[in-house]
Amino acid sequence: MGYLSLFLKWKQKKQEKELERVLEESISKRKDYWNTIGHVDGDVLTHLLNPMFFGGPAWPSGRQTFIRVQKTETVILASDGLSDPFQFLEEKSRKQGKGLEFYIECDDEFLRGPLSDIQDHWAFDLLYQMSQNAAAHPNMLELFMQYDVLSIEFTDLDVPSHFVNKNGEIGVLLGVQSPSISASLSLPYESIKLISMKLLTPSELDYVREQGAQGRRQLAETFQLSKSYHITMTKRESLI
After folding, report:
1. Element housing 215 (H / E)
2. How far is 100 from 59, CA to CA, in rounded Å?
3. Which of 38, 118, 149, 189 supports an S-S bond with 69, CB 3.0-4.6 Å?
């Protein structure tokens, strides 16, 4: 074997060790942070068969996992893998994957049940669909850097009926600031964004559609003034 081949093999092993170290540290730092917010389960929510092998979007390291954080009055479900380092260093050197993770905080007591049942809950479905959208998007982080607060719409999700309009559309506001959860988290390569998800009522969704970026910001401020912040309460009055 020539010197060049030996060098390339050594370089590859070094890169693999670097990726393994950063991946383990990223997972650990995210879990450590969520443990300051509430109780994190020892196990994660994941798939028996990774959807990326069946045409689904690829996550940075291949891991597609989610965690549960139980607080006194609410439960948080969060993506855990969108900010893993990319599988190949050459792909995007020294980047924490997509640079963000999503979470939804809800007061539904069903979310405290067996972890195996959580994947049937609408809050997990919402988080899962959002995470897959982010994995497929070329650079969703840039949109958040530009606008801070975004919105997205879904259909065919079994959320509480008063959050669904007459056309079956469901609005979600992304990035409402929390008084207790940091908007960013420092990981080995860089800081990432932690982005909240909040269900909108049909009238709130109409307002966002009509007013655009300004409407999203104003609605986020309204949620903060009402002290409901980013939390999705299963029963609440519309603020618009």
Report:
1. helix 202-225
2. 12
3. 38
Q: What's the pLDDT at 45?
A: 86
Residue 46 confidence (pLDDT): 81
Q: How many residues does the chain have?
A: 240
Burial pattern 190-202, b for ≥16 Cβ within 10 A else e, equals: eebbbbbbbbbbb
Residues lower than pLDDT 70 in the chain: 1-14, 47-55, 88-92
Q: What tokens were used for 155?
A: 């259909």
Give the pLDDT confidence score for residue 87 in this predicted structure.
80
Q: How many CB atoms lie within 10 A of CB 142?
A: 11
| Rounded CA separation 106/52 (Å) | 28
The predicted pLDDT at position 194 comes to 98
CA-based radius of gyration for the chain: 19
The closest of 89, 93, 156, 161 to 128, measured between CA atoms, is 156
Q: Which residue has the tokens 């307002």?
A: 207
Quote the tokens at residue 192. 């990432």
pLDDT of residue 141: 96
Q: How far apart are CA 76 and CA 195, in angstroms?
A: 12
| Closest among 31, 34, 37, 89 to 61, alpha carbons compared | 89
N-to-C CA span, the chain = 71
| pLDDT score at 50 | 60
Cβ-based burial of 213 (10 A; exposed 0-12, middle 13-18, buried ≥19):
middle
Q: Distance between CA atoms of 136 and 159, rounded to whole angstroms?
A: 23
Angle (nearest 5°) at CA 125 between 196 and 216: 35
Whole-angstrom Cα distance, residue 194 to residue 73? Answer: 20
Residue in the block written with tokens 């070094």 = 14
